[in-house]
Amino acid sequence: MHLSYLYYTLIRPFIPIFSRAILSTRDRHQRIVAHPRRTLLSAEVYIHVGTPCHRFCICHYFSEKDKLEALERKFPII
Question: Is 0.85 topped by the overall pTM?
Answer without folding.
Answer: no
